[in-house]
Amino acid sequence: MLVHSRTGKWATWAGFFLLFLPLFALPLVVILAASFSTNWSGAFPSGPTTGNYAAATRGESMEALTTSLVTALTASLLALTLGTWAALAAAGLRKRGRAVLDALFMLPVAVPSVVVGLAVLVAFSKPPVLLNGTRWIVIVAHTILVTAFAHQSVSAAVQRLDPMYEQAAASLGARPGYVLWRIKLPLLLPSLTAAAGLCFALSMGELSATVMLYPPDWTPLPVQVFAATDRGSLFTGAAVAVVLMAATLLVLFAVSRVRTRASYR
Q1: Residue among 110, 46, 69 nearest 246 (CA)
Q2: Is 52-264 CATH 1.10.3720.10?
Q3: What is this structure's pTM?
Q4: pLDDT per residue as tens digits for the range 162-186
């Protein structure tokens, strides 16, 4: 820590907990408590039960979880591919060209996601590219929304790469493709895994654009949470939300293991 005195450390930790508990931890605890309850009329929930999870882990909810996982994984891979390609290509541009490219990639996150959803709906509702009513329109929207984060993460890592590795490989006769595959990408692997985890988490929680686009046979889990709470099934919705958080955290934990090994390598 930057604070070296004992009093300063205690004050820093106290300030951290005063901010962390009410702003971050308490809402999650409330959702977790509600997921095991049937009633909440006082200060604390009542009617402890596990029945909410029975509804949250079968039928439509499990289908929605599978839909969210497939959508998030596909969108993350597409976003990581596009963002990495653009970051590597931007490294050879001048400062003004990189600024323009960065602005283009950041544009989807500079506007509300519902605007992106509407734009995708209008763009892909007529030939020659007709995606409306299919799962692909949801995946395309999620890819557009998360590609900016992949691009920014990888672009920052590319700028920190030591050019001596590439120059040494080229001086030994290595072709550009070999340098990219065996030199640059392994060095970028920690940043790639971090970007993939961020894209996955954002896609798993995306709702605004998804509500405008999803077909009846491709309902992601956040839409299921919204539908449950909209019908008044708050406690079932809380259980579904906990399942969503748990699935996201498990995938992020697996990604962090890959990132740790890549950093050690």
Answers
A1: 69
A2: yes
A3: 0.87
A4: 778 777 877 777 787 878 888 888 8
